[in-house]
Amino acid sequence: MGSANLSSIKRRMKSIKNTIKITKAMGVVANSKMRKCKLKLYSNNEFHKSMKDTMNKLLSNEEFDSNYMKARKSKKDLYVVLSSDMGLCGGYNNGIFTELEQDIKNNEEKPYILVCGQKGRDYFRRREYETIAEFVEISEIATLNESKMVLRKIISTYNSEDIGRVNIVYCKYVTPIEKKVVIEKLLPFNIEDNNKYEKNTNEVIEISNNIDCDELVEYYLSQKILNCMLNSRMCEQSFRIEATNNATKNGNELIDKLKIKYNRIRQSSITNEICEIIGGSEALK
């Protein structure tokens, strides 16, 4: 019986060690991806900030007019949800889904869903939400072409359906420790706190004459979605690093406990054998 237990413990220890090798490898890959994503995100943050300031200056003037800025009476909302394609990233997806469900409770009508990521696709299919599009296997470092692809579907649905608002749900990267799920409105388009900008009427009239305001809003939204995608991917990799590190730590702790158990059973078996030998010797006397 003791020999069978020892064999079972050895097999379990071997299985855990193989799992630890996998989690360590996944952690190394996640670290590499995170470093690449960090460089892209930080440079994109600077561009996005300057683009936002420019749009604020334009919106501070009445001459800037876009169809995307007009409010709608419809109570039907569209949520753009950025989830992951793979698992083992801790509470990343659960945090997004929980925040979304809390926000949907306040809606009078069941919303449309546009989801990015296989985990989100599976989640909404199980709950029978109406999805207008499902984008999976987006690049590890999202590109402007991919954000434009998502935006085209948003715009076509917004123009063809009676939708009141379009919101994007994603995880915003603040620090390696602080990552928060946010829900931001994309349409109808407006940027808050634009009163601090002085009115530059002549400048805005000149810009408005040379460009299409709707096209400018669409370009800004494509950059906004790209920034959200990069933030989400950064958070995903950060969560994955934490999850793989915790899995490796727990695996090592479990192996230590199994080693103690293994040694106790082995010691007990040796002690029993010694006792049997001594008992046999005494019987021969």
TrEMBL record:
<keyword id="KW-0472">Membrane</keyword>
<dbReference type="GO" id="GO:0045259">
    <property type="term" value="C:proton-transporting ATP synthase complex"/>
</dbReference>
<dbReference type="InterPro" id="IPR035968">
    <property type="entry name" value="ATP_synth_F1_ATPase_gsu"/>
</dbReference>
<dbReference type="InterPro" id="IPR000131">
    <property type="entry name" value="ATP_synth_F1_gsu"/>
</dbReference>
<protein>
    <recommendedName>
        <fullName>ATP synthase gamma chain</fullName>
    </recommendedName>
</protein>
<comment type="similarity">
    <text>Belongs to the ATPase gamma chain family.</text>
</comment>
<dbReference type="GO" id="GO:0005886">
    <property type="term" value="C:plasma membrane"/>
</dbReference>
<keyword id="KW-1003">Cell membrane</keyword>
<dbReference type="Pfam" id="PF00231">
    <property type="entry name" value="ATP-synt"/>
</dbReference>
<dbReference type="GO" id="GO:0046933">
    <property type="term" value="F:proton-transporting ATP synthase activity, rotational mechanism"/>
</dbReference>
<dbReference type="GO" id="GO:0005524">
    <property type="term" value="F:ATP binding"/>
</dbReference>
<keyword id="KW-0813">Transport</keyword>
<comment type="subunit">
    <text>F-type ATPases have 2 components, CF(1) - the catalytic core - and CF(0) - the membrane proton channel. CF(1) has five subunits: alpha(3), beta(3), gamma(1), delta(1), epsilon(1). CF(0) has three main subunits: a, b and c.</text>
</comment>
<keyword id="KW-0375">Hydrogen ion transport</keyword>
<keyword id="KW-0066">ATP synthesis</keyword>
<keyword id="KW-0139">CF(1)</keyword>
<comment type="function">
    <text>Produces ATP from ADP in the presence of a proton gradient across the membrane. The gamma chain is believed to be important in regulating ATPase activity and the flow of protons through the CF(0) complex.</text>
</comment>
<keyword id="KW-0406">Ion transport</keyword>
<dbReference type="GO" id="GO:0042777">
    <property type="term" value="P:proton motive force-driven plasma membrane ATP synthesis"/>
</dbReference>
